[in-house]
Specification:
Helix content is 41%, strand content 19%. By secondary structure, it is α/β, with parallel strands linked by helices. The relative contact order is 0.22. The chain binds guanosine-5'-monophosphate.
């Protein structure tokens, strides 16, 4: 029997080197990523570059790399972005390619927390990645989170809800779905899908 027969017979597959976590606006991707950062230091979480200004408490180089419009354009033109997108029609966000490639080479499990456009781009260039959709328990929970966060004005909220409806419909494009019932459970499920166990 060849090794491919063995794999075909259901032997455990090696986890994908790159996992992409996407999902609708305000579903809690950022919170789940933060829980991953805290509980699973073995997982390397990509630091996106963004043209949006920092929110209070956000640290440059940790939560995002905050860059100017010109710098973002330079990164894109130099082909240094694995993917990038304009999110909510406003700011640009992208995954710097170099660090991701370095971490793959180093054998670290890599996690990208990006929007749906970005996930589709990665699907084209890295089809071997694992694509995970983070879903809200239901639509009302999503709306409650979106409104409850209180960081956006009414127009921005409406824009985000429209985006969220479109994004929810994308679930079948993904390999796996995790329902974000609680942050800890979602983070644990994600780590398990990545073949990583809790060290604590
Ligand atoms: P926020 O501004 O609330 O931190 O993030 C807004 C959205 O940008 C989220 O949906 C988040 O997933 C997305 N995002 C963050 N980083 C990236 C990235 O590198 N690429 C793409 N395509 N989207 C990103």
């Amino acid at each position: 029997m060849t090794s491919s027969n063995i794999a075909g017979a259901g032997a455990a597959k090696a986890p994908a080197p790159v996992t992409v976590l996407a999902g609708p606006t305000a579903v809690g991707k950022g919170t789940v990523s933060a829980a991953i950062r805290e509980r699973y230091p073995q997982i390397w979480l990509s630091v996106s570059a963004t043209t949006r200004p920092p929110r209070p408490g956000e640290i440059d180089g940790v939560h995002y790399r905050f860059v100017s419009e010109d710098e973002f354009t330079r990164l894109v033109e130099a082909d240094r972005m694995l993917e990038w997108a304009t999110v909510h029609g406003r700011h640009r966000y992208g995954t710097p390619r170099g660090p991701v490639e370095d971490m793959i080479t180093a054998g670290r499990p890599v996690l990208l927390e990006i929007d749906l456009d970005g996930a589709r781009q990665v699907r084209r260039t890295m089809p071997e990645a694992l694509f995970v959709f983070l879903a809200p328990p239901d639509w009302d929970a999503l709306v409650a989170r979106l409104v409850g966060r209180g960081t956006e004005d009414a127009e921005e909220r409406e824009r985000r809800l429209r985006t969220a409806r479109v994004e929810l419909a994308a679930e079948p494009e993904f390999d796996r779905t995790i329902v974000n019932d609680t942050v800890e459970q979602a983070a644990d499920e994600l780590a398990a899908l990545m073949g990583v166990r809790d060290l604590t």
